[in-house]
Amino acid sequence: MKVSFDQDPDLNPDDIEVLIKAARLSPAVLQLLQQIQQLSDNRPTLPLTVGDRVVVLAVNDIVAIEVYGDELTVHTMTKVYTSRGQLKAIRAKLDPQLFIQVAKSTILNINYLRSLEASFSGNMTAFMSNQQKLTVSRKFLPDLKRLLGL
After folding, report:
1. Are 65 and 107 in contact (CB under 8 A)?
2. Parallel, antiparallel, or unpaired for β 106-109 and 71-76?
3. How far apart are CA 24 and CA 9, in angstroms?
4. Which residues pair with 58 in a beta bridge?
5. Rounded CA gap, 37 and 102, in Å?
6. What is the pTM of this model?
7. What is the pLDDT of residues 70-97, one digit of tens each?
8. Rounded distance, CA 9 to CA 23, Å?
9. Which of 143, 131, 138, 149 is closest to 64 using CA atoms?
10. What is the distance between the alpha carbons of residues 101 and 123, in angstroms, rounded to a whole number?
11. Alpha helices in 2-112 (DSSP H)
12. Cα–chain-centroid distance for residue 58?
């Protein structure tokens, strides 16, 4: 793959134009087009109702999200936020190339994943940058491996 940058003074300062050249439309080209589209559709913030206020978190700051009943816990490197909601609703707002469900009640941001270690009964333990340990269940392990390119 060859990547290059060409400066175009005719474009507006906030505009970006992406051109992909290939001999044919292949699955790799389609995947690249989809990833570029997701970048432009990406929601950079996530509003959370915490108590009587709304906190707007930068999506890139989120390390992991856990749910117990209808109580969401959002972990960042520096704080933990508790809100009400469903995991599937939050998951729908996040980039699937960065956030992956690893257990029935847990989503993690792969940018903060430091290592994986085998644990009890085929599960794995994910060690995160904020010193958090998360269980990766056998059911979700193949998806995580695929996202990591393993």
Report:
1. yes
2. unpaired
3. 30
4. 45
5. 25
6. 0.68
7. 899 999 999 999 998 888 888 888 888 8
8. 28
9. 131
10. 14
11. 27-41, 87-92
12. 12
Residue type, 113: L
CA–CA dist 91, 139 (Å, integer): 17
CA distance 65 to 120: 22
Nearest to 131 by CA among 148, 108, 109, 112: 112
Ranges of the chain with pLDDT below 70: 38-43
Q: What's the full length of the chain, in residues? A: 150
Burial of residue 59 (CB within 10 Å: 0-12, 13-18, 19+) is middle
Structure tokens at 39: 């970048």
Tokens of 13: 């300062």
